[in-house]
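TICKET #2291
ISSUE: user wants both folds in one file
ATTACHMENT 1:
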Amino acid sequence: DAQPIDEALAFLLDHMPPQLHLVITTREDPNLPLARLRVRGQLTAVRASDLRFDLTEAAVFLRQTMGLDLSEDNIAALEARTEGWVAGLQLASISLQGRQHDAADFIDAFTGSHRFVLDYLVEEVLHRQSESVQRFLLQTSILDRLCGPLCDAVCLSTDGQATLEALDRANLFLIPLDNERRWYRYHH
């Protein structure tokens, strides 16, 4: 049970001296008073959207780090396909090694169902989820946009909104489409 640890960290955050800075890294939002810390100006959050590569960063990564000689159009298409996700760019780069002559065709066909991307997602993300979350992800993967009631209809359940909120807090696959976080889509 992590509750005693969460309580101790919350106490520390409320009572630490101003010269002390605490860095917490986690894939999921921790069970801490984040809203209160944010209002006080004591929280700097780095979200998944902050870690995405923009077009310039993607070009530098693909050319200098991965050694690919791609056209601007190919880089733009690959950045759009991966939404700047560095692991996606790297997996695409591995697949492109030695086949840059047909880069445009490969990039057009590169999706989340590409074998390297699929292997990564299954091994590193999906298998680490509970059986109920795995079932929810698989059943709702057919939807272009998701909201609680729509997920309830597809999954024949009543916890669609709660599951979406949990996935959002866990930074798993979802991109919110509105400020109320009622509508989402999965990463491409």
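ATTACHMENT 2:
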Amino acid sequence: DIVIDPNERIAVMRKGGIIRLRDYSPPNQVPTHVTLGLAWDVTDGVNIDLDASAVCLDSSRNVVDIVFFKHLTSNDGSIRHSGDEREGDEIGDDEKIAVDLARVQTSVKYIGFVVNSYSGQELD
């Protein structure tokens, strides 16, 4: 059986989609922590290397910081990447990015999550 904590909110991100935290939160409440979980599986015996990144932008949408497999922690320590998984053979999420929203520096107004295929496969 799968047990889901009723206080936990899960959103499924689609290619090109936007997820606003306020749409998944009770009125006038925003979570203090969010986690991007990226999971994939090997198909037809071909290893696929997907990579998750977090891009932090200021109010003018200029890049303030980027967290990815070569820079695992944001400069302010509020965003942490679990590390690079190259084959998608883990149980559950293969890569995670955890964000402590209360610690994000005040100049950051937007955090975008990006998924790309390091091995070059098309993403649907």
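RESOLUTION: both attachments delivered.
EXTRA DETAIL ON ATTACHMENT 2: DSSP finds no helices and six strands in the chain.
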